Amino acid sequence: MEPEQVALFWKGRVGLYAIFRALGVGAGAEVIVPAFTCVVVSNAILYLGAKPVYIDVDPKTFNLATGLLEQTIGPKTKCILAQNTFGLSADLEPILKIAQRYQIPVIEDCTHGFGGTYHGQINGTLAQASFFSTQWNKPFSTGWGGFTAVRDEALAEKVRALEEEMQLPAPGQERMLQAQLWARKNLLSPSLYWPILRLYRRLSNSGIIPGSSEGGELQTTIMPEGYLLAGGIVQAREGLKQLQRWPHIRERRLELAAIYDRTLEKLGLLKLYVPDHISHSYLKYPLLVKNRAAFFVLAEQHRIRLGDWMLSPIHPVEEKWEHWGYLRGSCPVGEHLSRHVVNLLTDLDLTEKEVKRTITFLERYWGEILPFPS
Fold it and tell me: How many whole angstroms separate alpha carbon 131 and alpha carbon 33?
């Protein structure tokens, strides 16, 4: 894509909001989203007075179940969101064909999918528009941040115009980001992972420090103050550094995923399903377990770092789903997966010692692991 087709934002969700606005999503419109998404996606729709319409997911891929798509489309459907869950592209060919039949634009949610491909084409380049996140633990990280990539020139111009209207982050926000980037690189160790994770979540949920999902976004569907911000200088500089490291980051993620594949096969379990025409970027390696809460306790006792994406169909909200327009029981596959999924890490800072400890942990507690659907 050309530079004028890309816009930078303080967070990826702001880029999604800008795409929605540029597409004319507003009061009365409906947007189809997978029922294995993040609450900030639903919020971006609700902030515009529109309605998220949740569609169940494929149990093998964790992505939108394409067989349900056509029956989910209605007269008010304004666009379809196709998510790259954990780094695996959605099955875009049938999605785009159905969308074209109804003349509905598709947005690729590439917040997990940077670096992956679909039929040899790079994630984020197949649909009319896409948005990416560069938040903590994303494919490459600038702390907080995100960007959009829009194929259609007229639509790209509208998104860029919205970006230019937005304020830049305040100096205090830039300094806070710099401090958090420094702390993550210099203070976070495996032994401190769980206590720091809990502290970070408490502070961000209470609004004391900016986080991936802040308190207001988890409690209300009213746009928080200071939401509409363009990208800042600190993010741009950090992003350029991280992009230079990307080949090494991707190689390490693939290496770790192969280790996890072999471990599961050795234990007589199915490895993670990846269609032949898709190149997975393995932001996380999902695993299904019988009792997630108990599994997390065991992991902490054995000093195993695990991820907790996705705790619900509208992660990380675990109650009062109706506030975000989700009817409990409406998407049983997404609800089942979100009750049982944990994530093995594929982060660059995962040491060989930690990897061996993780494999030993899985071998010891393999009876707690649920098989992937065949």
Answer: 14
State the amino acid at position 261 in one-letter form.
Answer: D
Under 8 Å between Cβ of 139 and 87 = yes
3-state secondary structure of 325: coil
Q: What are the structural domains of the chain?
A: 1-206+226-374 (3.40.640.10)
Dump pLDDT digits (tens) for 103-148. 999 999 999 999 999 999 999 999 999 999 999 888 888 989 999 9
pLDDT for 183: 79
H-state helical runs in the chain:
12-23, 39-46, 69-72, 92-102, 153-165, 171-186, 193-205, 215-219, 233-266, 292-301, 332-340, 352-364
User: How many alpha carbons fall within 13 Å on the CB side of residue 142?
Assistant: 27
Partners of 343 in beta bridges: 286, 307
Distance separating alpha carbons of residues 113 and 110, to the nearest angstrom: 4
Among 204-218, 242-256, 266-280, whose mean pLDDT is lowest?
Answer: 204-218
CA distance 264 to 360: 12
- In contact, 32 and 55? CB cutoff 8 Å: yes
Which residue in 37, 136, 42, 31 sits closest to 337, CA to CA? 37
Q: Considering Cα of 174, then 175, then 176, then 177, what sign does the dihedral take?
A: positive
Phi-psi region of 119 (alpha: psi -120 to 50; beta: other; left: phi over 0): left
Distance of CA 168 to the CA centre of its chain: 24
